[in-house]
Design brief:
STEAP_metalloreductase, oxidoreductase, alpha/beta, P5C_Rdtase_cat_N, Rossmann fold, NAD(P)-bd_dom_sf, eight-stranded mixed β-sheet, oxidoreductase activity, 221 residues
Length: 221
């Protein structure tokens, strides 16, 4: 798969590196082309350039810039992004008095929905934002004997297929979570998890499978 990455920071490097290891062709783009060149060299990308060059490179484009900048960037590149699958991994988060806080209201008000509105010709999916960037540096992320589940939201079936193929190639398990109207829930879940880690806890301990409870009964229809 040919993938253009918008951004040259930690998430761009972590996901880009994972995709290069999985055999995909990646081009890193940034406003600072020197930074894009450095990230591309570190991960073994096929090339680097400006944001427009990365947006036009492949059928799949990752938006890996600060969440508040993502909709505006998508609007600026709307013509280049038309007809492409756009992956939004951003997390709208800011420091709060009790820990990290969500900067959108959740639900339908999500960065992903704003990106889709700004670039109406693109097929937008919300994905890869729940885990910390360090997880994507693992060769094939797996925990407690199971491959990492990667939740995503997408309205377009073609976008869902691209995400599924990409996640599979990374050795992870795609986890469809509905359309973009639910993307805000993924963004809120990411902020919640960061807040739990910030306080010294483990988010995974809050979500055990009901099947693991003593005396659990399988009531699946």
């Amino acid at each position: 798969m040919r993938i253009g990455i918008l951004g040259a920071g930690g998430m761009a490097a972590a996901l880009g590196g994972a995709w290069v290891r999985a055999g995909h062709e990646v081009v890193v783009g940034g406003r600072d082309t020197a930074a894009a060149a450095g990230t591309a060299a570190r991960i073994g990308a096929a090339g680097h350039g400006g944001l427009g060059e990365a947006a036009r490179y492949g059928d799949t484009v990752l938006v890996a810039v600060p969440a508040e900048a993502a909709p505006r960037l998508a609007g600026d590149l709307a013509r280049d992004l038309a007809g492409r699958t756009v992956l939004d991994c951003t997390v709208p988060m800011a420091p709060g008095p009790g820990g990290p806080a969500l900067t959108t209201s959740g639900g339908t008000d999500s960065v992903a929905a704003r990106v889709a509105a700004a670039a109406p010709g693109a097929r937008v999916a919300k994905v890869f934002g729940v885990c910390h960037e360090s997880v994507w540096t693992l060769p094939r992320p797996a925990f407690e004997g199971a491959p990492l589940a990667v939740p995503f939201c997408a309205d377009d079936p073609a976008a869902a297929r691209v995400v599924t193929e990409l996640v599979d190639s990374m050795g992870c398990a795609p986890l469809p979570c509905g359309g973009l109207d639910r993307a805000g829930l993924l963004e809120a879940a990411a902020v919640f998890a960061v807040g739990v880690w910030w306080s010294g806890g483990e988010a995974r301990h809050a979500f055990p499978s009901p099947a693991l409870a003593p005396g659990a009964v399988d009531d699946t229809p």
